[in-house]
Amino acid sequence: MSSDSEIDVVSVREEEPKRSLQQAKKEPTTSYRKRKAYSLSKKLEVIEYAKKNSKTAAAKRYGIDRRCIIDWFRKEEKIKSEAGSSKRPRYHFKSFYILYNASIPNSMTLIQHRGWSI
């Protein structure tokens, strides 16, 4: 296990902050907030800590937004089931792959009907 102050961050992406209409009329800002993707094991660790203490205490301890922890609580079963599998689930690619490689004549029509490009 890592120390309490360390967090396993999988990826970081900068995102432009949401601005109100009044702010948009003013000079454009160059500040960005960073979005972080956490590993499944870290999510489970935070969930377990939050169960023993509270979601707010977990948010303060790990430096993660409380709203994010609440969402992880809702998705706990899904996170647990994915923890033993691959790093990144790819659900939508599998369904496209099956349709694309199927020998059914209707599969190409179905792909075109759904608006997927080939």
Characterization of the model:
It is a single chain. By secondary structure, the chain is mainly alpha-helical. The chain has two domains: 1-86, no CATH class; 88-118, no CATH class. The protein has seven helices and two strands. The chain has helices spanning 21-25, 40-52, 55-62, 66-74, 76-83, 91-101, 106-113; strands spanning 9-15, 33-38. It has a two-stranded antiparallel ribbon with strand order 1-2. The longest helix is centred in the middle third of the chain and has 13 residues, at 40-52. The model has no long low-confidence stretch (mean pLDDT 72).
Quick rundown:
The protein has 118 residues and is mainly alpha-helical. It is built from seven helices and two strands; from the N terminus they run E-H-E-H-H-H-H-H-H.
Write the SSE topology.
Layout: E1 9-15, H1 21-25, E2 33-38, H2 40-52, H3 55-62, H4 66-74, H5 76-83, H6 91-101, H7 106-113
Protein name: Brinker DNA-binding domain-containing protein
Domain Brinker DNA-binding: 35-81
Main location: nucleus
The count of DSSP E runs of length 2 or more, i.e. the number of strands, is 2
Mean pLDDT: 72
- Main-sheet strand order equals 1-2
Pick out the low-confidence regions. Answer: none
Query: How many alpha or pi helices?
Result: 7
Which shape, going by the Cα principal axes? flat
N/C terminus separation? 45 Å
In terms of DSSP E residues, the strand content is: 5-15%
Structural class per helix/strand content?
A: mainly alpha
The portion of residues assigned to helices is 40-55%
What radius of gyration results from the CA coordinates? 20 Å
Largest sheet, in brief, is:
2 strands, antiparallel
Number of domains: 2
Order of helices and strands: EHEHHHHHH
